[in-house]
Amino acid sequence: MSRSGAPTLSVGDASGLNVAVVAASWNEQVMRGLLDGALRALREAGVTAPPVLRVPGSFELPVAAARVARDGADAVVALGVVVRGGTPHFDYVCSAATHGLTSVAVDTGVPVGFGVLTCDTMEQALDRAGLPGSREDKGYEAAQAALATALALRDASGGGSLREQRPTSPTGRRTP
Fold first, then answer.
1. Which of helix, strand or coil describes residue 74?
2. Is residue 43 part of a domain?
3. C-alpha angle 9/134/118, rounded to 5°?
4. Do 89 and 58 meet the contact criterion of CB atoms below 8 Å apart?
5. Cα gap 59→56, rounded to integer Å
6. H-type alpha helices, the chain
7. Which domain holds residue 109?
8. Residues whose CB falls within 8 Å of the CB of residue 122, separated by 6 or more in sequence, listed in order
9. Is residue 1 part of a domain?
10. In this structure, are residues 114 and 101 in contact, taking their beta carbons and an 8 Å threshold?
11. What is the arrangement of strands in the sheet containing 75-83, beginning at the earlier edge strand?
12. Residue-wise pLDDT tens for the chain (176 aa)?
């Protein structure tokens, strides 16, 4: 596992942000660690009681992320885990989740923190889940990335809520 080049993020006060968490349910032990880490990062930044939307698996994360982004979230934290098996299913799910979450961020302008573990073994997943004995806490990191990006976008636009800054269509409706 390489941490070479990883940034040290310092997230300031994010208490004014509306952040939602979407989390898969497969591999409950790993998901518990990812979710705990993400919620801890959000609390430390002043985001209290974020909504948590649980979906069956990582394949379903993009549609859930799109919904909360369109419903007014300033940032989304997406959490899941896919462990390689003996079929191509792993490749399809990883690709769909990655491309889908990227599309949500680009299409809506809402940052999506990518906390989807794509691992060859369960041991790799456990080592990244933020559990006692884990070497990394990818849930925490995904939440920090979502917050840092949302704050950077807000600052680049002169402050205020990101929802207020989204452009409107010619009909006056806010665009996603």
1. coil
2. yes
3. 80
4. no
5. 8
6. 28-44, 61-70, 89-108, 122-128, 138-156, 162-165
7. 19-164
8. 27, 30, 83
9. no
10. yes
11. 52-55, 19-24, 75-83, 112-119
12. 456 667 787 788 999 999 999 999 999 999 999 999 999 999 999 999 999 999 999 999 999 999 999 999 999 999 999 999 999 999 999 999 999 999 999 999 999 999 999 999 999 999 999 999 999 999 999 999 999 999 999 999 876 655 555 544 443 444 44
Supply the pTM of this predicted model. 0.88
By CB neighbour count within 10 A (0-12 exposed, 13-18 middle, 19+ buried), where does 56 fall?
exposed
The CATH number that applies at residue 111 is 3.40.50.960
Cβ atoms of 77 and 113 within 8 Å: the answer is: yes
Whether residue 12 is contained in a domain is answered as no
Which of 33, 35, 104 is closest to 65 using CA atoms?
A: 104
| First vs last C-alpha separation in the chain | 36
Report the DSSP beta bridge partners of residue 161.
none
Domain total for the chain?
1
9 within some domain: no
Exposure of 43 in the CB half-sphere (CA atoms within 13 A): 8
Is-catalytic flag, 89? yes
Q: Pick the catalytic residue: 43, 89, 99, 174? A: 89
